[in-house]
Structure formats: structure tokens, C-alpha cells
């Protein structure tokens, strides 16, 4: 990745951190309906996500470039292989304001988005969705976020 692209990518990630620092409570109130167990799940996920972002942003450009292929972030496209039939599908994990079901752009708050966020290539998991439980393997991750941020 060239320096200009890495610089823009780093800025995108910094903006995500700023968003979660400054607007998380408003965002949470708007998108999360259940303040019990769901609040705990989302809070833990966002906390882990922020910690991951901070670790990635502390890296030099070459490490940053590698990390963008090693962990699913907001804006990452994730190639998922379904173990039962070998079918592969590409999802892009995004903010709820950027979803586009026709292009498999899914919210990180959706059941599938929650499970894919922070996954790594070659990781296996049982993806729980409205249609049931399906064993999958993460084949590839690539960061390419182009969306905005809620509240901008």
C-alpha cells in the first residue's frame, strides 16, 4: 500500500476512535434497544474494538498495512466460506448508517456483523443467523472503508 493510501486509512481509523469516544452514548441510544444483556454485549464488543484500533494505530506503516489484512475492522470486507457446501460469500462490516443489503454491507451491530468483527483469516466459527447455525471459515480480510460516520 502506498503512503498516501496508508495515511488516509490511518485517518479513517482515527476518526472511528474519535467517534466512539465522543458520540458512542448517542449512537448506542439510537441503535441498541435492549439495555440489559444486549448493552453488555455491545459495550464489550466496542471496548475490544477500540483496544484493537489503538494497538493497530500504534504500529508503523508496514505493520499497519499487514494488520489491515489480519483483523476484521469496520470497513473490512470478509470472505467467508460455508463449511457445509463450500460456498463463499463476501461481507463488508460497516456502521449501521452505511448498510446496503444488496451489496452485503452489514452493520457491525447485526447478528452476523457482531460475529465477524475482529475475526482473522483462517479462523473458524459457527455463524449464528436467523436461518440457523452454520460452521464457516474466514478466508480473507481486506480493509477498504469508504463510508462516513454517524453524526457527520
TrEMBL record:
InterPro entries per record: GreA/GreB_C_sf, Tscrpt_elong_fac_GreA/B_C
Query: GO molecular function, one example?
Result: translation elongation factor activity
What is one Pfam family matched by this protein?
GreA_GreB
Kindly state which keywords UniProt assigns to this record, in alphabetical order: Elongation factor, Protein biosynthesis
In this chain the Transcription elongation factor GreA/GreB C-terminal domain maps to 74-142
Q: Where, if anywhere, are coiled coils annotated?
A: none
| Protein's name according to its UniProt entry | GreA/GreB family elongation factor
Amino acid at each position: 500500500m502506498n503512503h498516501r493510501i496508508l495515511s488516509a486509512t490511518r485517518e479513517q481509523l482515527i476518526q472511528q476512535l474519535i467517534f466512539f469516544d465522543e458520540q458512542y452514548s448517542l449512537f448506542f441510544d439510537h441503535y441498541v434497544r435492549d439495555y440489559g444483556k444486549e448493552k453488555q454485549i455491545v459495550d464489550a464488543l466496542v471496548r475490544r474494538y477500540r483496544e484493537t484500533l489503538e494497538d493497530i494505530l500504534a504500529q508503523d506503516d508496514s505493520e499497519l498495512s499487514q494488520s489491515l489484512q489480519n483483523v476484521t475492522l469496520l470497513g473490512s470486507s470478509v470472505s467467508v466460506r460455508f463449511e457445509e457446501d463450500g460456498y463463499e460469500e463476501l461481507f463488508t462490516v460497516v456502521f449501521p448508517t452505511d448498510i446496503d443489503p444488496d451489496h452485503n454491507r452489514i452493520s457491525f451491530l447485526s447478528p452476523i456483523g457482531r460475529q465477524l468483527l475482529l475475526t482473522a483469516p483462517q479462523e473458524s466459527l459457527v455463524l449464528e443467523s436467523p436461518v440457523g447455525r452454520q460452521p464457516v471459515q474466514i478466508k480473507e480480510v481486506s480493509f477498504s472503508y469508504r463510508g462516513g460516520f454517524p453524526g457527520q
